[in-house]
Amino acid sequence: MSVINYENVNIHIDSKIVLENVTFTLADGEFAYIVGTVGSGKSTLLKTVYGEVDIFSGKACAFGEFDLCKLSNKNLQALRRKIGIVFQDFQLLTDRNVHDNLDFVLKCTGWKEKQEREARIAEVLELVGLPQKGYKFPHELSGGEQQRIVIARAILNRPALLLADEPTGNLDHETGNYIMTILHRISREEGMAVLMITHNEQWLADYPATVYRCADRHMQKQVLR
Description:
This protein is α/β, with parallel strands linked by helices. It has a domain of 54 residues. The chain has seven helices and ten strands. It has a six-stranded mixed sheet, with helices on both faces. Strand 7, helix 6 and strand 8 form a beta-alpha-beta unit. Helix 4 packs across helix 5 and helix 5 runs parallel beside helix 6. It starts with a strand and ends with a strand.
């Protein structure tokens, strides 16, 4: 099944063309990169997927059921429940420890049973390699650890799609490498599609996957040699 299907999509911001004639498909469980220079439209494209930026024209569908060109408020909320998002800035709640950051999300998304919440929190912390860090506050964690908690938060509700915007941008190479390992493992083991923006093109060689390049207001699939 296609998680995302764009056909001849045009994206404008304040009457300025950002991207035009974008056509691509992301399959269930597929990992794909979006690369390109600053200002080439990468982040704007990602924002159209979760409904933060409107699509000007074309056809765009998510999960085979959501028309991204005509999203009602009700459908927008339903769409976002199927998507996890990882940004470069962590946006963790600084007044709560790791466990309570994760529990807050579960409570807000309808998990009523405490036992089920505790089991899921333990599961995602294990998945990102931080099973003993639940009691720590964000300021007590390294940048890499905070990003791993952000990934754990993003996958709590088992989304079908994970969007990652420069998730290794503020991290050293070794820490970024570990984050990349986690993201690819999640895609593989959880069957989750991942669409990731990166400026570090070394990842394309180290962790091969589908690559789309944004340039000159277009996005093209790249054939790696």
